[in-house]
Amino acid sequence: VYLSIEGVEYPFLLDTGYSGAIIFSEDKERTFKNNSKLELEGSVFQTVSSTTNGKETIYEKMPIRFSDYDLNVKMNVSGSIKAQNIGIEFIKGFDWLIDYNHNKVYIKRNQNKIEDTFKRTVSYYAKVQEGKLLISVKEKSQTRFNLGDQIIAVNGHQVLPENICQLLDLLNKTED
Q: Which residues pair with 96 in a beta bridge?
């Protein structure tokens, strides 16, 4: 299918395995005018075969045109995923009829919301790796911690095998 982003048409594949709305491969020659964005570094996505590691730019309220619909959506430009896909969050926003015999797709907008803004501020995310709690993602502008830094205690509680999952959950739900 084709989407027009900031007036330029691009081909996309439907990808029900991608939980987001739109993912674009980073291209140094392509720039967007939309300045409402969040820049992240680290292991943002888990794919079937690996975990990504690089720069991800998430644009909010990106103006797109899809068929006869003008929308504002959240769009990810990835420095590590080399795909140009529409994910399940976007797909669920439409009713689809795919005519394989005539190679045509018919769509109609439904009541399902397509996210257009960040759900929350991201400063850092942590993950468990080899029994340790590590900083795995950070907002590019953040300097307090580095990717790969080990978290040894949270609010005075030492990170132990018995509580590592609880502390990971707590950290990833905390704004800072």
A: 107
| Three-point CA angle 80, 85, 90, nearest 5° | 120
Digit-coded pLDDT (tens) for 94-117:
999 999 999 999 999 999 999 888
CA max distance for the chain? 64
Q: pTM for this structure? A: 0.78
Number of Cβ atoms within 10 Å of the Cβ of 40: 22
Give pLDDT tens digits for 1-13.
999 999 999 999 9
Phi and psi of 21, rounded to 5°?
-90, -60
Half-sphere exposure of 128 (CA within 13 A, CB side): 13
